[in-house]
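Continuing the series of single-chain predictions for the mutant panel. This is the parent chain; the variants come on the following pages.
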Amino acid sequence: MQVENFGDGLTPVDPAAPAGDECQGTTGQNGLAKATLTLGKLTEANPTYLKLNESDEFYTKVGLNLVTAAVAAYSGSIPAGEPFEAYGTPDVPVEMSKAFGDEAGAVVNNPAGSLKVIVQDKHGNPVSNVNVKYTSSQATSLNPTAAFPSENQGLRKIVFYKRSECTESYPLYGDCPTYSTVVIKTDSYGALIDTIMGNTVETKYTVEVAVQDLPAGAPAVNPATFTLYSYGHRDGKEYIPTYLSLKSLHLVNDKGQPINASKAGTLLKAPLATRLIRITDTLIMQPQAACTDGSQGPCWRTTSNGVLNYAAVSNGNIAFAAKTGGGAAGQTSNEGNGKYQAKYTTGAVPMKNTIEVSGTASLEAPEMLLSSYGTLIEYNYHADTLPMRTVNMPTGTYATFDKDTLELRPYSTSAKPIYTVYGIDTQLTVAPKYVQVDEEGFTKSDTTLTYRILPDGTGSTEPDAAYRASTVDIDFFTNDGTNPDDTETLGTLWPRLKIT
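Parent structure:
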């Protein structure tokens, strides 16, 4: 008898026989030979998925142990028709690990990405159908001199949203139902929740995650803490001018892996999508004791309480431009509520494609002045409010105005957002090319399948030049032999093969 794939080893009933991945024994008077199988520890070694209880919401990853048996005969070995099968299930949960999302950063009021934990047994196997509670716990300023509001003044911590309740690919606060605390069940990949950043710059946000409702007698599982950060900086009570931003969350699956590829020279299934957002600070005009520029008073200075607001911009002119890879972006469509998208066809050669997005929009902004040195002018305004100006702003800039000419003079232009997608192809070699099968549909000889997924990074020093596939699906077919190249008459074959 021999263990394949997942089992730890066979222990023969005969104590004199050796144990291990393979053991031998003799049949008794009844013609039976017996061995005891010790199940393997890691479900990942040969995974399959089962619902262990009728009440389970999700499938559990279990380990399939296979044991083959053969009888030594005069004319050679006689194998059993099918292997013995046994499933190894995860033990009780004992630990929780952070899979991704920790130490992430984002612009205020924008999606901050996904947080994912994996609840595991003592061998590191993921345990499904365990309740996990996410709690948005703290918001702490990283700049003790900057204006920072209390919750009564409008401070908002990170909030969570569920993809099942939100159709927006890039939701802003208010687009979808949000929660400060949420309980979700783990599946075989863990427990994942999506987040929206709070409304203050240069802030550290913490999220606590705890396992709930463990079986009686199960050991306690230590909680996990995620830390996230908001971008930006504020000096003291400085007012931050209106900012026009283009943002996008790239599509990912439930494992957090990107969905960003198509066969080279073909259309991506999902369009490139972006969202145009205006971010405005809370403007507070504070009276000055005296004007400091020699002018007659009264004078005011611009300040803020630290709360940043936002709004989707639906009147933008947005363009997607292919930069590398030889692909082509289609015409941009305005989907409303600040959303813009364009179809994209990857280049004919399998390789990484990059696409740049930029644009402009007409909007109203307070007339915040900029000195000839390029610094914001905070003092000596002769009114307790700033005039509102309608201007055509480029994306990635702040709305500021020249002190002398009062013309728009945007500053601090950010880098244009870049999308990375892949045009891919595959190369598959089968040796031998034609395979004989028995009456049950199993191959009569070993078959070697060698595949390559292009681009594989050959000839490039870029770390992301190669496409990294998350799964590979290979279909096998039989042929009646009359026309080996006629795929229309092929029937599906499920041979017993191991692909690595």
